[in-house]
């Protein structure tokens, strides 16, 4: 063991002292801004940790986006679920395999490029929440929404370039600041509740279903006992073996491992349920003895195979005239949630890894980081994926010692290798990932304590945002409802204050969160140009050094506490 340890130290030292180590600012490289504690092999291990922590996205993203129907066309209009259309279901199997490949490709390319160009230990992949909004609200279940799958990909493609533009001019931060802080935090919580509902439905473990008498009903029956029209269980509720194996092995086991902070807890849970579901002669098999099951099993037996993207590659449709309003709404929601999500996650991970400048409150190459993320969004849409974003699971790799872009590059390389194991990832059943969605919802719920519950003008809009997202099955409607409630309620309070000249105010008005349409801090350069203040300091203000905060450490802390979509309460209270 001593000899191995010495060899490891010797390799770390050799790499650190090389040009390679200097480029990535490894500890001991001699670079003026070397990352303290960063070692080559530690970065590799951290990258693998991040991969195993977030690899679930390959199966989960494919499962969710397949629910949209993709580019498949159902010819049986009498059956909304198209379950009786053999050709359509065969097409869906191909779509699922396409998206598995696409998810692995864009996560690999995005993470590798992000790590190489920014030297930050943050991985990219199609974001949870946005993929659900894409599949269930924009496109709709099996294409029943207002925008087709092809048009939705166009919206994602355009959003990426808009995001690049906003990143370059510094407007991203300004847009985030004018949204009320509690509504921003509530958006993340609402998305978590939305994912929980999806995980409990038949897109997951099948615990709940629709009903003719109530909005939802307890389910848990085998598919043959479902009402073909309403979708509720006619009989045999809570008897489906796939539901119970998903709950016990996919949910309880994963939560148990997470309690001991096992890095690959989610992967282990998905793997256990999937392996148990692969034998054909069990009541919970994923490969039943029918035409569809036979086809899936033949593909599964290949184990190692490369599935080329056939149906979703460059599938954009640029004819947006007929659904312009719905297209614009989808584009705005994608853009807004991405701005909030990426801003909070990237800054939080940069601060967690210790690279934030204490004087400027900025992290190195921040504008380039946001541009890389934005370009990955557009590239991902070309492969058929929903918006790509920075993953909060990158914190697992940082905890393992990741400090440089080598961590993200290792994660990206791992995703690219996984492309050749598509038959395995394509054979992960929905009940294996259903509890994953529920657990992700649980983790996103933790930030609810950051909402200002002390003042009704902040609490009610936040609650409306949280409640509307899952119950309307829409992220967009939840955001709109929250902003509408905030505007009307606080507008009435403000008008009353003006009319009475301040004599009538809520007794707890001093507990309200501060909001202004002129947020503090360094404004974007285009606003300063309009105000004639661009050159007032005697030098041009660098967009790179001010792209996230442009102010003090306190303003950064205020930002993260206000907009963190998936950052834990512990993270937001650091610094």
Spell out the helices and strands N to C: HHHHHEHHHHEEHHHHHEHHHHHHHHH
Low-confidence stretches: 537-575
Q: State the domain count.
A: 2
Structural class: mainly alpha
Q: What is the rounded distance between the termini?
A: 39 Å
Q: What portion of residues belong to β-strands?
A: under 5%
Could you tell me the number of beta strands?
Answer: 4
**Biggest sheet, in brief?**
2 strands, antiparallel
Write down the Rg. 24 Å
Mean pLDDT: 81
- So how many helices? 23
Written overview of the protein:
GO terms for molecular function: purine nucleobase transmembrane transporter activity. It is found in: Membrane. Mean pLDDT is 81; it is low at 537-575. The chain has 23 helices and 4 strands. The protein is mainly α and 575 residues long. It is globular and about 70 Å long. The strands form 2 sheets. Strands 1-4 form a two-stranded antiparallel ribbon. It is 57% helix and 2% strand. A hairpin with a 7-residue loop joins strand 2 and strand 3.
List keywords for this structure.
mainly alpha; two-stranded antiparallel sheet; 23 helices; 575 residues; globular; 2 domains; 2% strand
Write the layout of secondary structure elements.
Layout lengths: L1 H16 L1 H5 L16 H15 L1 H11 L19 H33 L5 E3 L3 H9 L10 H21 L1 H7 L3 H20 L7 E2 L7 E2 L22 H19 L5 H13 L13 H10 L23 H29 L13 H18 L4 E3 L3 H6 L5 H14 L3 H4 L4 H16 L10 H17 L2 H25 L25 H6 L22 H11 L5 H4 L3
Antiparallel strand pairs: 1-4, 2-3
Helix pairs in contact: 3-16, 4-5, 4-6, 4-18, 5-14, 5-16, 7-13, 7-14, 8-13, 9-18, 9-19, 9-20, 9-22, 10-11, 10-18, 11-18, 13-22, 19-20
């Amino acid at each position: 063991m001593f000899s191995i340890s010495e060899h490891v130290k010797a390799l770390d030292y050799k790499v650190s002292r090389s040009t390679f180590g200097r480029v990535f600012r490894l500890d001991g490289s001699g670079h003026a801004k070397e990352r303290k504690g960063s070692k080559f092999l530690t970065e590799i291990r951290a990258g693998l940790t991040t991969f195993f922590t977030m690899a679930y996205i390959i199966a989960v993203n494919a499962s969710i986006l397949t629910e949209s129907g993709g580019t498949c066309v159902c010819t049986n209009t009498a059956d909304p679920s198209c379950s009786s259309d053999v050709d359509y279901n065969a097409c869906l199997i191909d779509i699922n395999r396409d998206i598995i490949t696409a998810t692995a490709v864009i996560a690999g390319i995005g993470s590798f490029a992000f790590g190489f160009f920014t030297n930050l230990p943050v991985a990219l992949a199609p974001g949870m929440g946005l993929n659900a909004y894409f599949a269930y609200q924009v496109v709709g279940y099996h294409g029943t929404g207002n925008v087709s799958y092809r048009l939705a990909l166009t919206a994602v493609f355009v959003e990426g370039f808009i995001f690049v533009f906003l990143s370059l001019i510094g407007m991203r931060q300004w847009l985030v600041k004018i949204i009320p802080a509690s509504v921003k935090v509530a958006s993340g919580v609402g998305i978590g509740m939305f994912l929980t509902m999806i995980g409990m439905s038949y897109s997951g473990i099948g615990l709940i279903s629709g009903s003719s008498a109530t909005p939802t009903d307890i389910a848990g029956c085998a598919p043959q006992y479902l009402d073909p029209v309403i979708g509720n269980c006619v009989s045999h509720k809570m008897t489906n073996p796939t539901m119970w194996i998903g709950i016990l092995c996919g949910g309880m086991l994963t939560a148990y491992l997470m309690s001991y902070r096992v890095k690959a807890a989610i992967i282990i849970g998905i793997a256990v349920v999937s392996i148990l579901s692969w034998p054909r002669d069990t009541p919970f098999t994923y490969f039943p003895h029918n035409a569809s099951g036979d086809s899936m099993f033949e593909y599964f037996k290949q184990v190692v195979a490369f599935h080329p993207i056939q149906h979703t590659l460059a599938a954009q449709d640029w004819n947006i005239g007929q659904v312009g309003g719905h297209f614009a709404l989808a584009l705005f929601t994608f853009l807004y949630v991405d701005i909030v999500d990426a801003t909070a996650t990237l800054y939080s991970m940069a601060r967690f890894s210790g690279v934030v400048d204490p004087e400027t409150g900025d992290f190195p190459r921040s504008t380039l980081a946001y541009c890389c993320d934005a370009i990955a969004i557009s590239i991902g849409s070309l492969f058929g994926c929903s918006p790509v974003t920075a993953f909060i699971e990158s914190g697992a790799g940082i905890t393992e010692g990741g400090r440089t872009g080598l961590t993200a590059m290792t994660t990206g390389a791992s995703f690219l290798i996984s492309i050749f194991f598509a038959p395995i990832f394509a054979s992960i059943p929905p009940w294996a990932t259903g509890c994953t969605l529920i657990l992700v919802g649980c983790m996103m719920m933790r930030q609810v304590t950051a909402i200002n519950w002390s003042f009704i003008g902040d609490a009610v809009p936040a609650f409306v945002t949280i409640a509307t997202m899952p119950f309307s099955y829409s992220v967009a409607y939840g955001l709109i409802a929250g902003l509408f409630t905030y505007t009307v309620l606080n507008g009435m309070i403000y008008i009353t204050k003006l009319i009475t000249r301040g004599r009538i105010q809520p007794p707890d008005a001093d507990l309200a969160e501060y909001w202004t349409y002129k947020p503090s801090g360094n404004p974007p350069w285009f606003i300063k140009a309009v105000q004639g203040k661009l050159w007032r300091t005697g030098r041009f203000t660098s967009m790179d050094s001010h792209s996230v905060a442009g102010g003090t450490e306190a303003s950064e802390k205020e930002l993260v506490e206000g907009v963190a979509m998936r950052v834990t309460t512990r993270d937001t209270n650091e610094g």
